[in-house]
Amino acid sequence: MPPCRIRVDAIVSVRTVRFGAVREVHLVTLTTDGSAQAASSGTPENPWGDTKTAAAAAPSSGSLGPTGRPRPVFPEPRPRITHGPARVVAMVNQKGGVGKTTTTINLGAALVECGLRVLLVDFDPQGALSVGLGINPLQLDLTVYNLLMERGITAEEVLLKTNVDGLDLLPSNIDLSAAEVQLVTEVAREQVLGRVIKPLLPEYDVCLIDCQPSLGLLTINALACAHGVMVPLECEFFALRGVALLMDTIIKVQERINEDLEIEGLLATMYDARTLHGREVLARVVEAFGDKVFHTVINRTVRFPDATVAGEPITSFDPSSLGANAYRELAREVLARWPDTYADRAPRTTGEVPL
């Protein structure tokens, strides 16, 4: 008698980064024994095309990483003499609980260890990024909301220093939820964030925007002013279901608002190599997105929530932990993917709207 199967089907449409048609559709079926099967409609291929990145060209350590590809050796970044203007990266995934905030905090702190100045923007009304850096959102007089919606408020007035030297924050709280509605009637509503943070960008090397778990107007603002978008993706089956919608949104932003927007990469988070399910999901992501998937994988560990409770990055809370070292490795990989002249790139100016 054949084994009983419980079908849980998800169709993930994968498009090219810019102006492309659907290249491949994966049908993933999970079974009761924990295995996964995948079938493709059309010819299987890397939907991102020939992605020759500096990371892909890095020398290999000779061993396979958790993504099933040879693990590159990423060099230590060169010391920086000057700073700015910042490369703006939006952390986006409309599914909550996938590690966006954790990645924003800890990647930012790891980049600071590499000698960069980093600006973090809490663009989630829940204020999780602010809480994760030891700030009580309920005690804030000025937040990103005031910066967006009130004339006369400058970014310097809202900016907060964190406990990590070189890591600064534009905080948020529940007030930001009102901006989603209020921005609807604004002229150039998708470009407000880019306009208000522009004065700060010459002082930093990287700006990381922690977006809310939705694809609403706030997230569109982040994509409109960003050079790149990073997608943290939990290694769980249901985390794959929204990838098609997210990619479709990114393509629309590229076509209509920000043609220079790039995919920085997809980051596998909350990975547990002991489970067949986690390994299968990661394999499917790599099969679909190729070199756009970071070699670095963030494993599931209790040290991340412990660091959040302490209100500091894991790189300072537990410097020798596997989680801290994983984000240091991610920082080196991110820098390897960027051109050597990335710091000389002019900031996005789509937000320049006369006041």
From TrEMBL:
SUPFAM superfamilies recorded: P-loop containing nucleoside triphosphate hydrolases
Segments forming domain AAA: 87-263
UniProt-annotated stretches for the region Disordered: 33-80
InterPro entries in the record: AAA_dom, DNA_Partitioning_ATPase, P-loop_NTPase
The organism's place on the tree of life at top rank: Bacteria
Compositional bias per record (Polar residues), positions renumbered to this chain: 33-44
PANTHER family: COBYRINIC ACID AC-DIAMIDE SYNTHASE (PTHR13696:SF99), P-LOOP CONTAINING NUCLEOSIDE TRIPHOSPHATE HYDROLASE (PTHR13696)
Family affiliation: Belongs to the ParA family.
Protein role: May play a role in septum formation.
Name of the molecule in the record: Chromosome partitioning protein
